Amino acid sequence: MLERTGIPTKAEIESITPSDERRRKGPVAVIECFQKIPCNPCYTSCKFGAIREFKDINERPVLDFDKCTGCGICVVNCPGLAIFIIDETYSDTEALVKIPYEFVPLPYEGIFVTALNREGKPICRAKVVKVQNAKFQDKTPVVSLAVPKEYSMEVRFFNIDDYFSDSTYICRCEELTLGELRELIRMGYRTLDEIKRISRAGMGPCQGRTCRQLIMQELAKATGQKMEEMPMTTFRPPVKAIKLGALTGGVDNE
Amino acid sequence: MKTVEIAVIGGGPAGLSAAINAASLGAKVAIIERDDQLGGQLRKQTHMFFGSKEQYASTRGIDIAVILQEELKKYRNNVEIYTDATVLGIYEDGVLTIEQGGKYMKLKPERIIVATGASEKFLAFPNNDLPGIYGAGAVQTLMNIYGVKPGNNVLMVGAGNIGLIVSYQLMQAGVNVKAIIDAAPKIGGYLVHASKVRRMGIPILTSHSVKYAHGKDSLEKVTIWQLDDQWKPIVGTEQDIEADVMCISVGLSPLAELLWQIGCKMVFVPELGGHVPLRNENMETSIKGIYIAGDVAGIEEASSAMVEGRLAGLCAAKSLGYDTENFEKLRHEYLAQLNSLRSGPVGEKIIKGLSKVTA
To answer: By the number of CB atoms within 10 A of the CB, which of A2, A205, B169, B254 ranks highest?
Structure first.
C-alpha cells in the first residue's frame, strides 16, 4: 500500500496508465501523483494545455493523453519527480522511458545500466540512449532508457553500479565490452558460439584465451546456465595467428 | 540605545518575506539573524519546492534564498542586517538584547516580528547519546552547507517530509540509506517523496521504532522493532541494522522562548508542533505590536511561512502608518494563498490546529 511503503498499487498505476492505443501513437507523460497535496507546477508548466486546470491547488493532475505530446517539460518541473515519459514507438521491441535523475555522475550515453522498478528491484538491463541536462531543466537531468517494451510501465529508476564494468573489456582483441556483452545476452544470444559469431569475440590473435572464461561467467550470471554444461565453441587450427608465409614455406612443401 | 521601527527576529523564509514587505512600504527594518548568512533553512534545501508560482514552486530552496535576498536589496535603504546575532531576550519595555560577535547590545523596536522557526524533536532510547546519532537538520547542515559526509550507512528515523527529503539528499551525496523507519502506521510526508526514495531501493518501514542503539565509541548498529496498532512494540520482531549514522527526524517544535518571555498567550496545540502563540488573522499575537510568522506560529511548509511573513510584514508596517492603496487587496491575497495551501487533506491538521489559536 502506497501510504505504508511508498510503492503505488497496481490499481493506482492502472488508473494513470495511457491506453495501449495512445501508447502506440508516440511519447506520452505518465503522472504518478496519487495524493492531494498543494502543488501545481505540472499544470502551469504544460504548454499544450494537456493537464486540466487546477480549480484548487490540492487537486491531483488529470492528463489529457491526446493533448500530451510527451515533450517532458512537466518532468523537470515536478517537485516530486513523479512524472515520466514513455515512448513505445522507439523500436519494434523497445520503449524509451525518460526518468528525472538528480545524481552524479550522470551516465554516459550508450552505456548499459540496471533498470529498477518502483520498489528499487532490478528488472532488466537498459541502454542509456540520451542524457538531457539543459539549463532550463535547472539541475534535473533527464535520462532516456531503452527497455524491452513490456517494461515501459515498470522501469522507474536505474543503478549505474556497474558503470565502470560496462566499459570494461572482455575481449581485448576484438574490443567487446562487458556492456556490449550484456546487451547481446539480453538480445537473446545465449551460447558462447552465438556470441562469438555475432561479436567476433574469441576470433582475434589470442583466440579466446582472454575472453572465453569471462563470457562464460557472464552467461552463467545472466542466464543461470551452469558453466560445466555450456557448449563450447569449435576449436580449429591454427591455435595462434601465423603469417601466411609460414604456410606456404612448409618443411616438406606440403 | 539603537532604535528601529520593526525588528524581524530570524532571517529565514518567513523573516525575509516579512522584512521585504515591511521595507517595501517604507518602514525601517532590522533583521537579526543568528547565522552568518541570511536564508535560514532555505540554504540547505536543494530540492524543488511545492506550492504554486506565488511561493516559488519548482524552484529549489537554495535558489529561493537568493531570490528573497535580491528582492530585499531593492529596499536596502530601509533595511539593516545583523548576522551572527542572537536575540537573547525581549523585556517588558520592548527592548531586545542581542549578542553579536561576542558583544552585547540593545535594540528598541516599535514593532517586533518573531520568525525564529523551530527546533528538532528528539527521541528517547538507550544509547541515544552515541556519536553518529544526529538530528536531520544537523545532517543537512553538514552535507549541504559544509560539504561534509556524515557517515556511510544511515538509518533514517521518521518518514515525514524532512526524513524523506534528507534520505534523498544523503543518497545524492553518495551515502547509503539502509532504511527509513516511522512509528506511525502511515508515511507522514508527501507520497511522491516516498515513492522517489522507494524506487531507489530504500525500504520504508512504517509501524517500526528504535529499540536500542549499539556501539562502543560511536554508533555501529541499531535494533529496531515493529509496533502493533496500539503503537506498542511487538517482542520478537527485533531486527538489527548496521549503521554508523542514525538520523532523527521525528518532527519540529516551534522555537517560542522569546514569546514566552514577553508574555504572549500561549496554547499547546499538538497539530502545530507544541506551544504556539494566540494570534489574529494578521499574525499579531496577544501583545499588540508583536507579530509572528513561519514555524514559530505553527509547524508548516516553507511555502506557508513565506506567505505568513509577507502578511505580518504588511500588517506591522501598516500599524506604523505606512500604507499602500493595495493594502486590503494584498492582505486578502495572502489570506487566500494561505487558505489554498491549507485547503487539501494534508492541510486539515493545520486548519484544525489554527482554529484553536486564531482569534
So the answer is: B254
